[in-house]
Amino acid sequence: MSFGEREANAAADVVRRRIGNSVPVAAIVLGSGLGGLADDIDIVARIAYGEVPGFPAATVAGHAGALIAGTLGGRFVLALAGRFHMYEGHDVRLAAFPARVCHALGAKTLIVSNAAGGVNRSWQPSDLMLIRDHINLMFRNPLIGALEPGDVRFPDMSSPYDPAMADLARAVAKDERIPLREGVYAGLLGPAYETAAEVRMLELFGADAVGMSTVPEVIVARALGMRVLGLSCITNLACGLSSTPITHAEVLDATSHAAAAFQRLVRGVVARL
Q1: Annotated catalytic sites, by residue?
Q2: Which of 163, 25, 34, 45 is nearest to 107 (CA)?
């Protein structure tokens, strides 16, 4: 399966039969442990990934594996509760496929979120970070291959995360009194956590946080002309910056502490779109 425009349209047709002709103002990708935002949505339809053509079931703890449609902050949205990670054995084009499907359903804005390790030494677990930019250290690109209809062959990545959307997130954070860090996200392939030497390298590269997702979705979204807002929940200090081993349970625990602030921030942004 190529996971291109034709497949995205076929998947969108199946979803549209469940949600009607409502056009989402935004699509929201919910990272590990951040799926609680779905509880804030007045749900019209909840569609298991297995029911969407091209979507496999989610297998990672903290990822519910469902596409949720409904209203948030008075606006119609799509929420993707779970991702398809390359470390699960998926192709990079599949990792980015949900962005294509949401675009086919009419979403012009993509809000991506993730759980990330803190590389910036002044930050703490449960901090929220506005993603200003990213570094693709996955060494994969979902645009490799034949040009898909509607894609830009050489998308400009000087501002992959939309400046106006970032300003909106800052305004909401200020109004809601939510502390919001800003920084650069490094995307690595995983699934092993980084070594202490790799974290020192990431510091030299200018990364503030590191994770195993997000980058493929953002690349495809930009090729399609979508606006992107990125948010990371800092779940732990990266290897070498803490004396304790990193576990996925720790990641989920940290996101649970940040979940309320994350939900208020995203709800506020959506309401102002």
Answers
A1: 32, 63, 85, 87-88, 115, 212-213, 236, 248
A2: 25
